[in-house]
Amino acid sequence: MKRAGDDRRPSEPGDAAAQQTAPEAMPAVDSRLIVREEGFRGYVGEFRRKLRSGELGSLPVVIAVIIIWTVFGSLDSAFLSAQNLSDLSQQIVGTGMIAVGIVFVLLLGEIDLSVGSVSGLCAAIFAVLNVINGMNEWLALLVALAGGAAVGLIHGFFFAKVGVPAFVVTLAGNLAWNGLMLQVLGTSGTVNIPGDSIVAELYSTIFESPAAAYVTAAVGVGLFLLASLLDARRRQAARVPSRPLAEIVLRTVVIAAIAFASAYILNQYQGLPLALLIFLVLLVVLDFVLRRTRYGRQIFAVGGNIEGARRAGISVPFVRMSVFTIAGTMAAVGGLFLAGQIQSASQTSGGGNLLMNVIAAAVIGGTSLFGGRGSVWSALLGALVIGSIQSGMNIMGVSNAVQFMITGSVLLAAVVVDSLSRRSQKAAGRA
């Protein structure tokens, strides 16, 4: 009597060999291991592959900065002077701060059109509470920041809970908060901020000692090296690919060259601006939040695939509301720095081309409009591009009309690069 299973196909001579070789036919090898084993040749090949697949990273904006500085430096040597570059490092802080909030929103694949009005409103709140009503300046500063966070939370609530599109919510907010700013300022329309106010000093204070800039550069390089070594050790302990020591050292040398060259240039004029230092510290903290925390990974997950994030157990409404709260808070911070720059809050605060500049800074810096790809350092790089263009054209006496057209063209070029990059990644199966 035939037992169950006896009707199986008789084994053939090649079956045993096939079973032995099958597991070895397609070994699971991480491509990064192959690249690092091949040395310099492997890195060149990997770089070419990334270019073909559209993984450009910060390369376009770095090239743009080099071209802009080369062109304006050749047209007028004053552009590359220590004074102009030092002034530029201060002038981009306000716009850059607001752009950081826009980066968070863009990572979700959304947009916030209210950050300009929110920045003006928070500057007006501080000025009226401190200058007109005599409130303690630190308390007035905290109230202004809380106001920005509250506005962002309101936007996030209507977007995440009620289901109103972010474009509509923030467009309505752009009008509403601008009107509230005018109401807060009252009939005077302008409130001058004293030069010894905390807001003015945060922008104008400069550490004149050369040691300040060099120590800051050394600390930054040291933290980068320490973080890289700890990350490599953690990956090795988890038995996943990690950067070899030679690559870590090379990256550290490049960062050190940039940091100490910047410190040298700043010291050739006055020294290290406090505003720039605050901006860099904030970028480091927020970069850690985005890349090294669970919350940061949730933001990328929601921006990359909202349905997948929801099925993975991520609270999508919480992420959305928190991101818009961050955007509102950063708009307040940037608005206060802009108010400290001109030492006043007026009916024009947060207006003009500020909104377009902060969105352009985030996009030009490399943050994708389609969500799920970007970095807070995009705000710095993008603001540097926008600020460099404006500074160079101001030195050359170019009219505002031409400046607007050139800035718009650069923004369009950045969006085109982003779109082509995304298309290349889809073709390569990486998006």
UniProtKB/TrEMBL annotation:
Protein's membrane topology = Multi-pass membrane protein
Protein name stated in the entry = Xylose transport system permease protein XylH
Task: Give the span(s) annotated as Disordered.
Answer: 1-25
Originating organism: Streptomyces hydrogenans
Is the Membrane keyword given for this protein?
yes
Spans traversing the lipid bilayer: 58-82, 88-108, 115-132, 138-159, 166-186, 206-227, 248-266, 272-290, 318-342, 354-372, 379-396, 402-420
Name the predominant localization: membrane
| Record function comment | Part of the binding-protein-dependent transport system for D-xylose. Probably responsible for the translocation of the substrate across the membrane.
Q: Which CDD domains match?
A: TM_PBP1_transp_AraH_like
What segments bear the compositional bias annotation Basic and acidic residues?
1-12
Keywords assigned by UniProt, alphabetized: Cell inner membrane, Cell membrane, Membrane, Sugar transport, Transmembrane, Transmembrane helix, Transport
- Keyword Metal-binding applies: no
Compartments it resides in: Cell membrane
Top-level taxon of the source organism: Bacteria
